[in-house]
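Narrative of activities, Objective 1.

The group set out to show that a structural description can be obtained from nothing but a protein's sequence at a throughput compatible with the screening campaign. Below is one input-output pair from the validation batch, recorded exactly as produced.
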Amino acid sequence: MAAKKAFETFSKSLIKEVQRWGCMKPTGVSLRYMMEFGSRPTDKNLLISAQFLHKLAIRISRRAIKLETLPYGLSQKPAVLKVPDWYLDSFRDMRSFSEVKDTNDEKEFTQMIKAIKVRHNNVVPMMALGVQELKKGMDLKIVYENLDEIHQFLDRFYMSRIGIRMLIGQHVELHNPNPPHCVGCIHTKMSPVEVARNASEDARAMCLREYGSSHDVNIYGDPTFTFSYVPAHLQLMVFELVKNSL
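Output recorded for this entry:
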């Protein structure tokens, strides 16, 4: 399998450990718990958070393993071959950090996971490029009728990626002074109308740059209604929907 070509640059002992950790089950975390825990970012709580995040190696290993056996030969596409290397590098970094015992360890660990987050910034465009490479070599009928397996994998893969980046981002943000009504990445009084308006304006601006004109976008909803959520996530969802519509 082509993904083994990516794995061949790593030691057999590391690959064996990836397989072992990939069999473990990750622990889920609710948004409510993250808000309650993050509302008290003491040194003790930050240490507990880092100790929990040390087990992100489970999620990272599972993603690396899945990338090894993608359907229709997607694992063999040049763009996709780069992605498992990033996950294996991150897994190795996590496992090399043997234990988070005190505040100094926590600070060092936080810098490491920040670097991991940056390392994976280009995962989405590289996977998208791999899918484009795959489609170019396939019969059009197969492309439009039989790629459900690819779509299902990508849905799960991206959801897992969002989860990993959210957990890292939340921990990192807890080190910074929180703006009003914010707990890390979470806004406790987010206005969906305001976020939708900003996202729509961003999409219109892109449309104007590309085509010289853009339809108006009307936002309907109660501007006083708020709830707890991650504004950046809703911003991206609305932006993509409106951009595609425009």
